[in-house]
Amino acid sequence: MAGLRGEDRTGMNFNGKHILVTGASSGIGLVAARMLASRGARVSLLARRKDVLDEVCAAIGDNAAGFAADVGEKDQLEDAIDAAAGHFGPVEGLFANAGLTGGFTPFLQFDPAVFEETLRVNLTSVFWAIQKVLPAMVEAKKGTILVTGSMGSKRGMAMNPAYVSSKHGVLGLTRAVAVEMAPHGIRANCIIPGFIETEALERIPDEQKGMIARRVPQRRMGSPEELAEVACFLLSDAASHVTGQDWAVDGGVLESIEVG
Hints:
The chain has a seven-stranded parallel β-sheet with strand order 3-2-1-4-5-6-7, with helices on both faces. The protein has about 260 residues and is of the alpha/beta class. The protein has eight helices and seven strands; from the N terminus they run E-H-E-H-E-H-E-H-E-H-E-H-H-H-E. The longest helix is centred in the middle third of the chain and has 29 residues, at about 110-140. Helix 1 crosses helix 8.
């Protein structure tokens, strides 16, 4: 990709590019899929719940199609990606967003089976998905990969070793792919959500949500739309010179120290 260099200001219009989003039936993935479709992308939505996918794709329109798969099962994931490519053509952009929280348990009691499952879904499945879509991108000499990381990609967190390990891992994986694939015109970045108002946070008591919001320099949580805007940018040609980066959408949490 030659880059925009000032002569092309349409980088946020996807012009029919095929973008595949995992974890797309709710939350960040769904909002991003809707936004991508509204900006001209053909969007494949991957998630486990076929009935929900059918419903949301019908609402989005003809430029969206759903493919049911558990990303933690390699055969299901690869079959879904093949089906998506058969429907919309080769995947030109991958938003690997699906993931598990891993649960909160003291380290000494943490279930090894939960640890392995969390790494398989949060990290290994991202490797599988990237490896599956890369050949077509290499052949086309262009492509974009975006992975959902976490503040746990950058910081430690008590009582959740599986989640923190997996999210540190996807950041390293993203950087490795970015370096190796740059000569092929392929970019890879990791988006870092802060405290975003998703279904998971809705289950938290209001008092606790208030405490969380007060930890954010902006004194509020972010919206899925704010996160999706940055995701769309990183997946678009407008970010043609951005690769190998971790991009936080967190209201300033990670890079700030407040005194007093």
